[in-house]
Amino acid sequence: MTLTNLSSIAAMDRAHALHPWTHFESFERDGALVISRGKGLTLWDEAGREYLDAVGGLWCTNIGLGRQEMADAIGAQALKLGFSSTFVDMTNDPAALLAGKLAELAPGDLNHVQFTTGGSTAVDAAYRMVQFVQATRGFMGRTHVIAREHSYHGSTYASMSIGMRNGDRAPEFGYETATIHHVDAPYLYRMPEGMSVAAFTDHLIAQLEAKIAEVGAEKIAAFFAEPIQASGGVIVPPEDYLRRMWEVCQRHGILFVADEVVTAFGRLGHWFASWDVYGFQPDIICSAKGLSSGYQPIGAMIFSDAIWDSLRGDRWYTSGFTYSGHPVACAAALKNIEILAREDLLGAATRMGDVFQKALATLSDLPIVGDVRGKKLIGCIENVADKSTKEPFADEVDIGKRISDAAEKRGLLVRPIGPLNVMSPALTISESQIAFIAETLRAAIVEVTDGLVRDGVSLG
Ligand SMILES: Cc1ncc(COP(=O)(O)O)c(C=O)c1O
Predict the structure, then answer these.
(1) What separation in Å is there between the alpha carbon of 437 and the centre of ligand 1?
(2) Ligand 1 atom closest to Cα of 58?
(3) Are 247 and 270 in contact (CB under 8 A)?
(4) Which of 81, 91, 187, 377 is deepest in the core (most CB within 10 A)?
(5) Which atom belonging to ligand 1 lies closest to the Cα atom of 154?
């Protein structure tokens, strides 16, 4: 967006705030869009312009914005106990109740929780946990981890080093590379030409085996994977892929960390996706976002009885944060879970997810839409310069951003990630809102395509 006359708020922001993923040149030129209010899926900027938020905040506003009940629960807890430490041997009622609730909802024997401040810190906490537990089991050398290309696991030093997404590795930053390894993603749209899905899956499984052999199983603590690789491009794996990757890990004593920061709390129609959608039982699940639907910053690293048993004894677990088990954040998460259950928003996500996928699929006739993919309430279009060869647009075309700008003009927010436009709306979305997304996105893509043709950009 281009704001020629910045308001005083936008000007203050531009002068003083460093945003996550700032692109300095365009930020200094354009400033930021100031969002002032939200209700359900609708946002209003400070000038009163209305937008339908198909992004769901940032994969997180699962129950929708502006809920009185959430404000009441947060306010009441802030008044009753606005903070209390959970270090060593203290707790508070919302933290204890939420830990119990998560143990009830998480699959299998995942009955223990370390609270964090968000998704990155949940992944960071898992990274520390897997090394610690391997050591308590006598495997001091198991300090390496394996993750995948096109993954995003957060923005702390460790979680950013575990992730490997196009464009994230700014050369000015340092990353841990000696002990963190990556294998290919199950990126079906760009798998080798002529290969079947089954053969591609076999290839990925064999590649993990080969990576383990190369590094040495005795050095590897864990494998980290998002069930659906979200920010890395909504990469939906073949049905049996995750289970087979998990089996390989099992065989080699490698712990499986499922990063469900996006996929948990209803986005795929279940509390968690690992078991209910993909049929594997991770040792650890990292969650955040939908845990409070974004009303409060909170994450949870949920781990197994087997891990807990290995931790026990005369030792200190020196990991955690001032705000671990924050009473107000935990009260928000408890109320959010109550609302998700009471309104059957998991069922709604299942039903509306199918409507959403069908609506997005109608865009595949457009000449620059190379792939439409997703599952339930996660969706994405991949724009390409040539549909038959899948040739990408040149970076400077910035196609995803052009389309999101054209959609924004029409009152729709979709997220540009490189050549992609990504969506993850609130689970309360209606059929008419889904229809609006599909129609508006179509109009935006047509407008951008016409502009490209006028500018002489060659399209296949
Ligand atoms: C899969 C995944 N893991 C971790 C994170 C990091 O979460 P946060 O930004 O809350 O630290 C994200 C954020 O988008 C994510 O998508």
Answers:
(1) 24
(2) 14
(3) no
(4) 377
(5) 6
Q: Which domain holds residue 437?
A: 33-63+344-454
Residues 258 and 334 in one domain: yes
Q: What are phi and psi of 92, to 5 degrees?
A: -140, 165
How many angstroms does the Cα of residue 223 sit away from the middle of ligand 1?
17
81 touches 73 (CB < 8 A)? no
Find the 67 Cα to ligand 1 centroid distance in Å.
Answer: 24
**231 CA → ligand 1 middle, Å:** 9
CATH label of the domain that carries residue 58: 3.90.1150.10
Which alpha helices (DSSP H) does 60-196 contain, by range? Answer: 68-80, 93-105, 119-136, 157-162
Write down the pLDDT at residue 91: 98
Q: Which of 152, 235, 301, 415 to probe ligand 1 with, by most ligand atoms within 8 A of CB?
A: 152
Q: Which residues line ligand 1 (CB under 6 A)?
A: 59, 118-120, 123, 152-154, 226, 230-231, 259, 261-262, 288
Q: Which two tokens stand for residue 67?
A: 């809920």
Mean pLDDT value of segment 407-415: 98
Mean pLDDT, residues 357-370 = 98
44 with 74, same domain: the answer is no
- Number of domains making up the chain: 2
Place 1 in a pLDDT band, splitting at 50, 70 and 90: very low
Q: Within 10 A of 153 (CB to CB), how many other CB atoms are there?
A: 31
Final residue before a domain boundary, out of 342, 366, 395: 342
CB of 445 within 8 A of CB of 412?
Answer: no
Measure Cα distances from 127 to 180, 218, 221, 299, 315 in Å: 11, 17, 9, 14, 19
CATH, residue 203: 3.40.640.10
What pTM does this model have? 0.97
Write down the pLDDT at residue 5. Answer: 67
Q: What is the CA radius of gyration of the chain?
A: 22
Q: Residue 202 and residue 185: Cα distance in Å, rounded?
A: 13
| pLDDT reported for residue 459 | 87
